[in-house]
Amino acid sequence: MATTLFPTSVASDLGGAGQKSLSASRGLISVNAVTNDVASGTNLPVTDVGGGQALTWLSTLLQAVTISGTITVNIRGKESAAQANCGAGILVERCDSLGNVISAILNDVTVPSVITEYSTSDAAKNGTFTPTSTTLVDTDRIKITLKVRNVGTMGSGHTITNTYAGPTAAAAGDTFVTFTETLNSIVQVGTSRQPNVSRRAAMRASIW
Known about the structure:
The chain is mostly beta strands. The chain has a single domain (3-203), classed as Jelly Rolls (Sandwich), CATH 2.60.120. The protein is built from one helix and 14 strands. It has one helix spanning 199-203; strands at 3-11, 19-23, 31-36, 43-45, 56-58, 65-67, 71-79, 86-95, 101-111, 123-129, 134-136, 141-150, 159-164, 176-179. The strands form two sheets. Strands 1, 2, 3, 4, 5, 7, 8, 9, 10, 12, 13 and 14 form a twelve-stranded mixed beta sheet that branches. Strands 6-11 form a two-stranded antiparallel ribbon. Strand 1 and strand 2 (19-23) form a beta hairpin. The N and C termini lie close together (11 Å). 35% of the residues are buried.
């Protein structure tokens, strides 16, 4: 069964600067992430405010799975002026339990694959992509970085506003990534366990 992950405004359990959580549930209210364009820029990470902290989103600890099916991406956003010449992009990575990047699953693609420019009204950019087949082991994570990409020559003095964590499909905040595979989380279900029950079995619990 496919799994859809939504970027949220909740801090990741890792606690690093700019690290937010991915969730299988929609958020309660759409959140803005504002990024300044940069003259002749090509591949900018989305930031919390213009000139602010770069943002990334990480899953909880995951059970082992191989990701090889298509990945569908939907990113909501707009630019403050047509002269910004900006569109959407994404980087999807495999990380270890501490958030250290192991490899790219979807390596800095534009969304859609033939990029189109944002308008000055919030709207969706989407596409479906074939990832690099990647095997996650128990306690790995998925990391998502939203990007601002150039459409022609990127301008300067403008802003790009991406919206995420919204409660409603096809509206502001409806940013998500859908994996073909079922992604199951690992959570610690107790500090003790019955005899003859392995530690791994004691930790397994699907919350997605």
